[in-house]
Each structure stands twice: as C-alpha cells, then as structure tokens.
Design goal:
α1 (about 10-25) runs antiparallel to α2 (about 30-50). The mean pLDDT is about 80. This protein has a single domain (about 10-100), classed as de novo design (two linked rop proteins) (Up-down Bundle), CATH 1.20.1440. The protein contains 5 helices and no strands. The protein starts with 10 loop residues before the first helix and ends in a 17-residue tail after the last helix. It has about 120 residues and is mostly helical. The longest helix is centred in the middle third of the chain and has 18 residues, at about 30-50.
C-alpha cells in the first residue's frame, strides 16, 4: 500500500498514526476516547509488533462500533470511523500481522520467534 508518495505505508501503522492524531484532540473527559479508542490504539501497537491474538480484529470492530455509538463528540466518532474504515477495506493486511506475523508493506517491526 502506498500513501500517494511512493513511500510504503502499512495500514496498521497508518491507522495507529491517524488514531494518535485524533487522540491528541480529546478533552480527556470522554469515556469513549479514554476507553475504547485508547484500547484500540494499544491493540494496533501490539499488532504492529506481531503480538496480536486471533480475536484482535473482532475486538477492534467491537471497540469501534461501541465508540461510534457512545461518542458524544466528533473526535470520538472520527476515531471510530478511522478504525472501521481501515478494517472494512484492508482486513487482509490486518490478518497478515497476527496470523502470519508478517507486515506486507515491510514497515512494522515484527519480531519473529524461532521455535526449536
């Protein structure tokens, strides 16, 4: 995936980046931003390191859906939309991070465990 300037960008990394921007605009009083969106950001960080579980996509979808329903401000709704849009359009790339422990764009710092 390219971001328009021929620089490879990983959708997991890019989603986390945009979610970080959204979280910088929160009032810190909203339970959606402090709860669901922060939990989603933590899940994306784990996934970017290849540490995600098989249930992480369902967790991200649930967090985004709950954030979208419960958000009382535009910041929470935007954050939920970022996650939902990325999952709807790039689910194969997300799955590669936790199923295959592989970043298709070669951006994420996934550590491979060697089993003997």
């Amino acid at each position: 995936m390219c971001s328009g300037s021929a620089v490879p960008r990983c959708i997991v990394d890019l989603t986390g980046y945009y979610l970080d921007l959204v979280l910088k605009e929160t009032c810190s009083d909203c339970p959606v931003c402090a709860g669901q969106l922060q939990a989603a950001r933590n899940a994306l960080r784990l996934m970017g390191r290849g540490e995600g579980r098989d249930s992480v996509l369902e967790e991200l979808r649930a967090l985004a859906a709950e954030a979208g329903r419960a958000a009382e401000c535009g910041v929470g709704r935007i954050g939920a939309g970022i996650i939902t849009g990325a999952l709807e359009n790039y689910d194969e790339e997300f799955e590669a991070h936790f199923k295959e422990r592989y970043c298709p764009a070669g951006v994420c710092d996934i550590r491979y465990a060697v089993e003997v």
